[in-house]
Amino acid sequence: MTDISEIKLTNAQIAWRAAQDIGDGAYVNLGIGFPEMVAKFQPEGRQAIFHTENGVLDFGPAPEPGQEDWDCINAGKKAITVRPGTAFFHHADSFAMVRGGHLDVAILGAFQVAQNGDLANWSTGRGGVPAVGGAMDLVHGAKRVAVVTDHVTKDGKPKLVEQCSFPLTGKGCVTRVYTSLAVIDVEDAHFVLREKLPAVSMADLQAVTGATLHTGGPVAELIVPEDL
Amino acid sequence: MDKTISSLAGAVADIPDGASVMIGGFGGSGAPIELIHALIDQGARDLTVINNNAGNGHVGLAALIEQGRVRRLICSFPRSADPTVFNDFYKAGKIELEIVPQGTLAERIRAGGAGIPAFYTPTSYGTDLAEGKPVEEFEGRHYVRERWLKADYALVKAECADPHGNLTYRMAARNFNPVMAMAARRSIVQARRIVPLGGIDPEHVVTPGIFVDAVVEVTDPAQEEVLNREGAVYP
Fold first, then answer.
1. Closest CA to B108 of A101, A91, A102
2. Which of A56, B8, B67, B86 is the most exposed place for a label (fewest CB within 10 A)?
3. Is B152 exposed, middle or buried, given 0-12, 13-18 or 19+ CB atoms closer than 10 A?
4. What is the mean pLDDT of chain A?
5. What are the tens digits of pLDDT across the range B72-88?
């Protein structure tokens, strides 16, 4: 069996692949942390408009260190910048954009995704201080809810599962998962494999996936830039 | 009509023990640090605080919690770069926590200000946070009923105010401030500048003065991120 930790994609490569599916002019919300990287890889000639739920549309990149204006931050509380086209609005309007179906894509991280599209990404249910933020709102309303994630947990357990064991963020909400090994759609309560790394066999991929991978047609090779 | 008050102490003087207090801000942006510190000095206890977060470091909301003034916190995300104060109080059972999804929190507050006692949202359907809440189906989808959220007081940070309480905000510091100003029985605002009537273009007013009760000028407001980098502790 191939050692998947040797060949798996980096987070930047996963983010790059997710960015290729964002159309010109799309309104996009990126979850805190790893999903934020997607913004760096917009294909040439396309311009997505990024939404951050604390009340900014169409913001610019992080400022130089020392140039931060702490009134101008994203949902991850990192400094961002204003650019021509930026809009500010209050929180109720911001979540009207989310729930009201005005976002084209939301891209989030995950602890687990189930084959029916259930997402668990806010709590491992093991005690500690619970914190949900905007995740439960973001999974409802965006036309497409995608997940970027490592294919397995740090200790090698599947993150794509038959049924989530962690507390749910939303039911039946995920439509596509970009993992470190594959691109997988959720269709009719099944995982449908669309792309996989050429170096991973079907058997190896299935072995690290907690639910049956279906193939609804040809499976393309998942090819990303090597230097990311 | 003149809603301006000359001192921070005067602005928060009548907040009693046991009051519910909405505090604007998302992290440090839009957090009315000076009003919160004035509330610490004033001494009110047993407060229910509504904020998106649970404080960061040892200033602002974190300081209010550290001083043992907050009995119950309603928030969406009690995590921050330095959540020590909240975490210690929570683990010791010294503060109650109600977790609300962020968009539901914003809409509950907006509904409170708008006189809408309840509404249906898709958010949290099928999750632990919807437990015990009525569910209804609309056009084939399930929605959870949520109730309005109102408060006795709101502490709001604005950029510019006039004597009628018309407000503008600065960049993403707007966040929860406008809806909280609507949802409190008495809304207290700190503004960087108080300008004469006519000093704000009516087209630019974000919060109309009808939602505001008191305005105090704080010309050089502290920023939570900057205070925390300096290791500041209040009081």
1. A91
2. B67
3. middle
4. 95
5. 999 999 999 999 999 99
Whole-angstrom Cα Rg for chain A: 18
How is residue B141 written in tokens? 């989808």
Tell me the pTM: 0.97
With contacts defined as CB-CB under 8 Å, which chain B residues touch A123?
A: 128
CA distances from B82 to B39, B58, B100 (A): 22, 9, 21
CB contact under 8 A, B174 and A88: yes
Tens digits of per-residue pLDDT, A42-54? 999 999 999 999 9
Q: Which residues of A touch B30 (CB under 8 A)?
A: 71
Residue A213 CA from chain centroid, whole number: 20
Q: Which residue of B has its CA nearest to A94?
A: B103
- Whether chain B has a CB inside 8 Å of the CB on A136: the answer is yes
Which residue does chain B place closest to A51, by CA atoms?
B172
Residues present in chain A in total = 228
Nearest to A33 by CA among A149, A178, A118, A140: A149
Which pLDDT belongs to residue B139? 96
Interface of B with A in 69-128 (CB under 8 A): 76-81, 83, 86-87, 90-91, 97, 99-107, 109-110, 121-128
Please give the angle made by the CA atoms of A181, A184 and A185, to the nearest 5 degrees.
170
Tokens 């931060």 locate to: A68
**Do residue B103 and residue A95 have CB atoms under 8 angstroms apart?**
yes
Secondary element (H or E) of residue B54: none
Cα(B195)–Cα(B217) distance, integer angstroms: 10
Please tell me the number of Cα atoms within 13 Å of B159 on its side-chain side: 15
pLDDT tens, residue by residue, B96-146? 999 999 999 999 999 999 999 999 999 999 999 999 999 999 999 999 999
Residue with tokens 């979850």: A31
- Chain B contact for A171, CB < 8 A? yes
Size of interface A-B (CB pairs under 8 A): 143
Query: How confident is the prediction for chain B on average, in pLDDT?
Result: 98
Better pLDDT: A125 or B38: B38
Tokens of A199: 């170096």
User: How much is the average pLDDT of A95-118?
Assistant: 97
